Amino acid sequence: MAFRDANARRHIGLQQLSALASTGRTFLGPMKSHKFIVDEITKQSTLICSAVRLMESLDLTSAVGQLLNETIQAQNKEFKTGMSTLLFLVGAWSNAVVECLQQNVPVPAIVSVMSEGLNSCCERVQCLQIPIHDVKKELCSSRVRPQAFEGKTGQAGCDGLTNPWDLLCFQRDISATEEVIPINSCSHQGDDCNFNKLLVSPLAGFGSVASVVKAAGDKSSSVLSGSGVTASSCITRKLTHSRHFSTLGKSRFTSQPGNFQGHLSGPSADVCGCCGLGHLAVALSHGNQTSVKLLQSIAAYQQERAEFSGCSQVNISGIVTCCVLGLPESYSCVSPGFVKLVSPEQATVIKHFADKPLRVLLMDGDLTEGYRHLGFNRPTNVRTILEHPNPQGGRAEDVWVSRMLDILMSFEVNLVLVKGNVCKNFMERCIASRILVIGCVARDVLCAFGAATGAQAVTYLSQLNASSTGNGAWAELWKTSDGRAVDLGELLPARISAGGIPLLTAVLTTALPSKVQLLEDQFWTLLYRLHHALKDGKVFPGGGAVELLCLSHIQALAVQPGQPGHDRVVRELPSPWLAEYKSIVLQALASGWKRYLSVLLCNTAKASSELEAGASVDHHLQKAAACGSPSAYILEEFRRGGVLRSGSEPLPDQVTDLKVCDNVAAKTEAWRRALDLVLLVLQTDAEIITGPSRNQILNSPVSNEFIFL
Amino acid sequence: MSRLEAKKPPLFISKPLTRDAVSQSLSLLSGILKSSYGPAGRLKQLHNGVGGCVCTTSQSSALLGRLSLSQPVLRVLAASVRNHVSRFSDCGLFTAILCCGFIENFRSLNVAPFTVIKISKHLLSLCMDHLKSEACGCRVSVDFSSVETLVCLVRSILTSKPACMLNKTEVDHLTSLVLKAFIFTVPCHVETNAVLGKCVVIPVKGRRVMDSTVLPGLLIEAPEIQLGKPLAVRRTSSNVIKIALFSVSMSGDGSNHEEGTIAVHPGVSLEVSELNQLLNVGKQLVKDEVGLVVCQKVMHPSLKQYLKEHGVVAVDRAGLSLMEPLGRVTGSQPIASIHSLPPGCYGSLKDLCLESFASKHFLHLIPGDTVICSLILCNRSETAWDELKRVCETAEHMLQLTVKEPWALLGGGCTETHLASYIRHKSSSLPASTFQDLGCSQTQYQLVADGFCRSLESVARSLSHDGEEVLTDVVYGHCWLVPSGSPCVSRWSDLVSRCGCGVSGNTEDLSWSFLQGHSGTPVLQGCPKEPSVKVADLRTLDCFAAKCSGLQVALETANLILDLSYIIEDQN
User: Fold this and answer.
1) What Pfam family does this protein match (any one) (chain B) (predicted)?
2) pTM, rounded to two decimals
């Protein structure tokens, strides 16, 4: 076992952290520079544009590198956003902490003051949070809103969050004690909010569905109109598209697969007209327009399906992506159902299906002869004795293929979705028998088809019985929004869907193969941002507003005597002693955000150097301090079009275009994770390498740093 | 062709403790352990150097469990400490540091080892008698009818490991969860012999600590069960859910790992016959009105399908660690064969429902009356979660030990310095007959006693990691830390604020002095006094049982090591 002292005057671990983090500097802010990662041996290169992909491509064998990677992956797993912030702050704070160490600040003082300082900031910035309900108002105050709306079904779901009639949430759960279905509580929306309260008393027993629909469309006493609101606008509302109020198979999407092209019309030119989430999506996109378009379609679709009602969530598990190479990016769109690239042979089968409803089978393993469920250990000590040679001489696989095909035929299955791989031989035989078999289908997709068609996933075909197959799926070749079929040679996109399936595919088109992963990452990032914004119920004003407030808050704390009154710190360390270091440590914490803002300004070309950017940040800080209430100043600046505008910059005409929002939890969690990592490394004084790598260490250039136990 | 090689003779190493290599390794290990001690202790990164996961820790169990020690002397020490930790969870570093201290201090004395052993055993008995006596000044009794002392005990453990990365609110939240979990494990109806239950830790990594929670009953992860759908589960006529618990694999592979070969004729499939047997079991379960089947290992998909079609919820891969609590919660006997279901093997549950935490789905088993609970433990990073899990388990265990012996020892180094001053006082006033009984001179006794006290004090001094001065006072014998680089003041009372455990303040003049180990720690004029303890002042408390055992284990191990005269190493 080898042992290395990590704390030899200058903290090696913190230096490693800072070096690793400095590689991600250009990923900060909306204007990200792409990077090529080149493998020195294979000369292969990858185009990356995010901290996660950077970490994946770097060779992180050191302990600190692994911890950093672990931290970034954890943030990515939960939020899919904030990783660049995390990476940058890790670097900035580890530099700042090293400076504290050089000024002989004791480690416990750094740890307690920094973590309490961050806590205090997280509490302070809560006043900047904008509730989702207010986002629309906040973001497009200039818009002239329609005073009334039409109750056309075509527009259903297009104003979801703020229109009360759309948010009819109905719990069929008889045991639920609440008798009232909350419609919408956005009474503060004033002008365009046809606010009403709909009281639905569940009738005793089950037969209430029909009467509820009636109650909604009836100008009866159960509709209480809000002040100054015409109840009649509600009456024309037809609830045919709500999942709860229409019988399956009666909705537009489900009954007419042939007529419906499987495309959602993109948002209209006026984003405000689309849906309440439109603005939020734009604000969270930080300038990525392609993804915004897709997101608005998804929001509109899910709203229409009443997925959104009440809970206001984006259902992430109901969304998959499919990348189609060879089309310009403008063809990217959202299709209901499942889009996947298939071979030309499979495409022929699909063409042959025409509009026929298909019987579907879902398989949650591989479809090969040798496949056995996980945990099945093949016995090694079993031998088969052949008494006489097999006259047919058929291979075991052929026998298996024929048997399986017979099973499929006997249940008249046309479509098989397989989670794992499919035996090539079997695939060919199926195509010949006009059965479409699709492999490598994600679990969520199988679940969605299961829910829509009634099919139950099986592991082996021998498990098949009448109840495990489902009905009502269909398949067609995917067409672009202008109706073109796509024939790009080897693989063709096909769309498979089923009545009422809660599944959407974002078809991402690009002509550049190297951009595929980028586009996919960007799409998911934005989707998760929207998801988390709805989950949090609030967003932060973006563009550095929050960081600026943190900075001003910390600087105020640093000069304040005796504050912050964290009793734990004060109890453990005598206060006069702590006060000596408090200011140094808080300045170190603040320097992280200051560098963040400076680099942000540089990356967005608002400042030509970090020095200039720093001066600009200081200028804004002074203005905020002079204003008396920094948070009020920052909010006001945000409303006027952005926090860190330079004085010469003209006020933008279209204010709505420029407003940027950030996620609340993702941002504060990224800060916390970054600081936790820095403090964890700071408190580490030794690296202990276990295991039999003694000779390797002895031969390495740093062997003199190690001691062996 | 095989070649025979003559065996090498074993290697004899005499007087191992006098060897340089041994004493170097010993002082390095002692340095690692000392630098990890206490709430400001430094962390160690443990990894295998080739990309394995990194463990950041300051915990004795993680450190000693992963270190590969080559010196037999160190291995003896590590084994004793790990054995102590396996029984008491807490005070591992204390034991190890104290043991190293004893070895270092006793080795340098010019006294024969057997005399040292005799005297030190006598000193230990003095300590233990003092700790168990009513007059003990470093012991407080734990009042289970109020929560304050318990909170202090739990908080001391949670804050003692900085790698958990907890802030104040998170410590408060976890303290209340650990206490809640402990209360769940106390049986409501006590018969002749009460048995405390168990708290099962459910990992949810990557989430905020504040998302952690505790639930009565057991949670089993069931990734295949879809949320949103109501859980349809069969109930018996008496409205309970019957449960069958299988410890045998039901994957249908026969699990036939015996030697020899099985010959089968073509057309005979062992797999099919195995599956038929499984389905027969399934039929029997359905017939017996079982509503929930839990299998420790894998279940064949066909069996799962069959059970599901008959309204039986089936969960597989429960894992070995859940089997014991599952048996306790449901009262079922694990079934170890798929050929016969023993009578009375089924258990029962009051209810079953679905829970989901952080995108993980769980089946929540709710029994009628339970002493088993589940702590859903979250922490942001993997390495911090691992540390937190060990800490929470230690805290649970500590509370259970405290039920048996409802006392706690003052923490923050105060118990160590107090015991040292007690021994210094006591050893100077022993009757001559004691030395005769022990067969030693008074000088020898004084020498060993001094080494004993210095070892105890070195543990208290290990709490200082940033050059803080460690002081002790003459009145109570408590331990005080003064930050390094403090300005020179005429009176110590301007610098010290509270002692390590928080009981005494700087209001009265306590004549502080340096706790410097070698050069004259002042001998108290009298026995250290018992301070009046205000529970609200208490900052740190230690587990009584664990610390007492740690003290004994440290001394016995040190004596064993001091007594080593040869190491015989097999070189083959």
Assistant:
1) Cpn60_TCP1
2) 0.85
